[in-house]
Design a protein that fits this description.
Largest sheet: 3 strands, parallel
Number of domains: 1
Structural class: alpha/beta
Radius of gyration: 15 Å
Strand order of the largest sheet: 1-4-5
Oligomer: single chain
CATH topology: D-tyrosyl-trna(Tyr) Deacylase, Chain: A
Order of helices and strands: EHEEHEHE
């Protein structure tokens, strides 16, 4: 096993060919401040720091699959490794800085078995190209 975390975020990170450092910076700050954890009243008011949560970041190029033609998905929107790996590593650095906690990672490009226990109804898709 490469990494395991307790309560916190599993971030499946897909990097597009057009993504840059500004996308990574925006996303890291947004994730660090996201208030989706329950407070004492049962309301989603706490962020990652508020629960002392962990983060596991796993690269996931298949998030950029195009399935419009036929039944075989195309992944041409996903960044090539020479672009994606440095941005993935920069994202981990930026998220670590924004959260003040050590970030666990998967292995970029590996065939990994990822298990998730989703404690609550929260799964969010974030797109740095859709900020507004």
């Amino acid at each position: 096993m490469k990494a395991a975390i307790g309560p916190g975020f599993l971030v499946l990170l897909g990097i597009e060919a057009e993504d840059g450092r500004e996308d990574v910076e925006w996303l890291a700050k947004k994730i660090a401040g996201l208030r989706v954890f329950q407070d004492e009243a049962g309301l989603m008011n706490k962020d990652l720091a508020g629960i002392g949560g962990d983060v596991l970041v796993v690269s996931q190029f298949t998030l950029h699959a195009s399935y419009k033609k036929g039944n075989r998905p195309s992944f041409t929107r996903a960044a090539r490794p020479e672009t994606a790996i440095p941005l993935y590593e920069y994202f981990v650095e930026q998220l670590q800085e924004a959260t003040g906690t050590e970030i666990c990672t998967g292995e970029f490009g590996a065939d990994m078995k990822v298990a998730l226990v989703n404690d609550g109804p929260v799964t969010i898709i974030m797109d740095s190209k859709n900020k507004e």
